[in-house]
Specification:
alpha/beta; TIM Barrel; 2 domains; 8-stranded parallel beta barrel; 11 helices; about 40% helix; binds 3-methyl-2-oxobutanoic acid; binds sodium ion
Length: about 260
């Protein structure tokens, strides 16, 4: 199998073939999504909520994300593996951002990194790209800034559309090879996608982007509870695992497991 490279993603945009991305935090999900033909696996800082049990993405650290990134990178045969720079690991300076990104590539085995921010992150993006790290920018709603943005809110509405477009242009000019847009109006996301040469990936950004990303624990229903509007649920893993665990419990309680065939 041929590995997905940045130029393949650019070619997909040019021929109008949508790009698929899912989060993955471990070896089995990475192997399954890779086998399914998903082009990009994001070891998101959403592992903070989905692996480590935190309420937001803010607490997760580089040292926590690196082993997950390494596990995903080891089992992805074709997919491009994206390391997600966590809160506080790149905003201080381009040097800090570059050194963190290098850790994700050297220690984590990531093929590229993603970082949150638009125009203000241009120097960090340029530093990384000049140092051999392909960068994906993440604009619109950026969860690491939930306390400055005032909670989970759609970004780029009304007058803020020009700001969002300026961010998209700035990250492309700084050298990002892709941009993720989260929770922005579909018409603005479509306009940006048409204008930019680099592919755009949407999450809550409508159907006019060059690709889509979902958090796997949302998409396949292992997580329960209130889902954001932009999530579509493709499986009910919570139900599957719950039934399995109950059947095992019942078997053991009834001494119907282990059976003859499981004994020595
Ligand atoms: O961490 C994450 O899962 C993300 C996606 C929502 C894009 O950044
Ligand atoms: Na993230």
């Amino acid at each position: 199998v041929k590995k997905i490279r940045t130029h393949h993603l650019r070619e997909m945009k040019e021929r109008g073939e949508p790009i698929t991305m899912l989060t993955a935090y471990d070896m089995y999900t990475a192997a399954i999504f890779d086998e399914a033909g998903i082009e990009m696996l994001l070891v998101g800082d959403s592992a903070s909520n989905n692996v480590f049990g935190n309420e937001t993405s803010l607490p997760v650290t580089v040292d926590e994300l690196l082993p997950l990134t390494r596990a995903v990178a080891k089992s992805a045969k074709r997919a491009m593996v994206v390391g997600d720079l966590p809160f506080g690991s790149y905003q201080a300076s381009p040097e800090q951002g570059y050194l963190t990104a290098v850790r994700f590539m050297k220690e984590g085995g990531a093929h590229c990194v993603k970082l949150e921010g638009g125009e203000e992150m241009a120097p960090v993006i340029t530093k990384c790209v000049q140092g051999g790290v392909p960068v994906i920018a993440h604009i619109g709603f950026t969860p690491q800034s939930e306390h400055t943005l005032g909670g989970y809110r759609v970004q780029g509405r009304g007058d803020a559309a020009e700001r969002l477009k300026a961010d998209a242009r700035a990250v492309q000019a700084a050298g990002a090879f892709m941009v993720v847009m989260e929770m922005v109006p579909a018409d603005i996301a479509r306009e940006i996608s048409e204008e930019l040469a680099i592919p755009t990936i949407g999450i809550g950004a409508g159907n006019g982007c060059d690709g889509q990303v979902l958090v796997w624990t949302d998409a396949f229903g292992i997580r329960t509870g209130k889902m954001p509007r932009f999530v579509k649920q493709y499986a009910d893993l919570h139900g599957v695992l719950l039934e399995g665990a109950k059947a095992y419990r019942d078997d053991v309680k009834a001494r119907t497991f282990p059976g003859e065939e499981h004994q020595f």
